[in-house]
Model the fold of this input.
Amino acid sequence: MAIPVPAQTRTTPTPLHFFNTASPEDTVSTLLTCLHSTPWAHRIAAHRPYPDLPALLAAADEASYDLSAEDLTEALAAESLPTLPEGTYAAAGTALRAAHAAYESRFGHAFVICLDGIPEDERLNHVLTAVRSRLANDPEDERVIAAEELRRLAGERLRRILRGATSP
Done:
C-alpha cells in the first residue's frame, strides 16, 4: 500500500519579497525612481519589511506628506514633462512645451501630474487643461497641489514596480 505524499509546492518570491530583502542601497535606488527625495526613499527603506503592497503604499503616502520644502524642491527638480502619446501632432507637442515653459517660469519647477486612470487618448487634453488651469494658482497653493501630484505619482510608480505583489 502506498502512502499518500502531499504535493510539494514552491512559493515563487513576489516582487514585494525582493523589495523587502534587497540591500538598502538597491532599495533606495529603486525608490528614487518613484520620487526623487532622498529622505523619503531612506525612510521607506528603513521601515522594511512590509507585509503587503497596501502597507508599503500607506508608508509611501505618509512619508510624502512629511516632505520638507527642501525635499519637495529636490523631488520637483527631478521631474520632467509628461510624455506625449505616440502619434501626437507636432502642434500639440509645441502647445504642451509652451504651456510647460510658462508654468516653469511662473513656479520655478516642472509641471507634475499623475495620469493614473486617464485614458491614453485623453491624456494630452487633460495635461494641457491642467497646466492652463494651474497657471492661475498662487505659488504656495500650487506647491501644495504639486506635492499631492508627486505623492500620487510615487504611489503609481511603486505599484508599477511591484505589479502583482498583493501579499508575501
